[in-house]
Amino acid sequence: MKTRRICVITGSRAEYGHMLMLMKAIEADRGLRLQVVVTGMHLSSAFGHTFRVIEKDGFSIDARLPILKFDNTPEGICRSIGLGTALIARSLGKLKPDIVVICGDRYEMLAAATAAHVLGIPIAHLHGGENSEGAIDEAFRHAITKMSSLHFAATEPYRRRIIQMGEQPSRVFNFGAPGQDLILNTPVMGREDLARALGFDLTGPVALVTFHPVTLEKNSVEEQVKAVTVALVSSGLRGIITRSNADQGGARINALMETFCLRHPRRFRLFSNLGAKIYFNCLRYADLLVGNSSSGIVEAPTFRLPVVNIGDRQQARVRSSNVIDVACESAAIKKGISQALSPAFKRSLKGMRNPYGSGSDGKVSERIKDVLKSAEIGGKLLKKKFYNIKF
After folding, report:
1. Residue 290 φ/ψ, nearest 5 degrees
2. What is the CATH number of domain 191-348?
3. Does domain 4-184+362-382 match CATH 3.10.310.10?
4. In whole angstroms, how large is the CA radius of gyration of the chain?
5. Of 262, 266, 213, 208, whose CA–CA distance to 239 is shortest?
6. Where are the chain's structural domains?
7. What is the tens place of the pLDDT at every residue in 177-203?
């Protein structure tokens, strides 16, 4: 039997975390051959050269495609999409995978999906059907869905939304979020060990802070960051701050956060990349998460961690009761922080379940791998019929 080639394309630390255990499952299966294409933020020094993490995890990288050669203005992002499409197409032409696996909604993945679709390579898409109404990623994700042949949604509402978009139900699966497997397989650190690894004192109320651009709002990055930082300082918090991603406005946010941390060196520290082990243990020991990262929606509920979710970036995503939605205004953020730290709110999260963890037995990635292995490839998988639903 011919070994099936599965090519995983990754461009950021976040979606790599979602796919890590799936990559391990593919590599461990003798009937499959894992191919790894790395691009985007993984190859940028500004984001910690996280391709080294992929290598440290034991994976061989088949292609490294630097596409972040332009600024993160709208024009620069368009140029990166074009360059990414060309470079990924060339690599896929050489690797000749049977299936391409991509995750999420970033513009690097739009480039990957476009290249694979035009080359006639079936796409398996993870985390489709979701919403990020405050970002251009919303349209990218749904465009990727329409180019994909196999769909692995993270919740049942997302599975139904993919079907609503005309995808055949037999090709749309809900095993839960594969990143939950990584959480279950990540070693637990002691609080003191985590503090030493971070070089950061974890006493007192500590927030994990991640703030990304709201890309559909124009000329408001400075106001947004000011609202967040004023609330953090006035709330008496100390903070572990992770860098924003390579979206429009991300570099400006990072510069402002770096200046902020230099002004408050004993209370706040900016990190380029924490890595999965340290990041998940930060979720375990932090008192709350503040920002607008999807991690607050998808991963924080597993730790019953209160989340102050700022603004519209994660609007309309399925969420649990740990999430407190606030406007991007300092007073609203401060009020949300106060609620998140209250004993009553923390007690209310006892017994809470993560809606993204429906298959939280550590086997989500294994189930996805089995579908990738058994799916009939070729023309039948590529030729899609629009599935009409009754209204």
Report:
1. -125, 130
2. 3.40.50.2000
3. no
4. 20
5. 208
6. 4-184+362-382, 191-348
7. 999 999 999 999 999 999 999 999 999
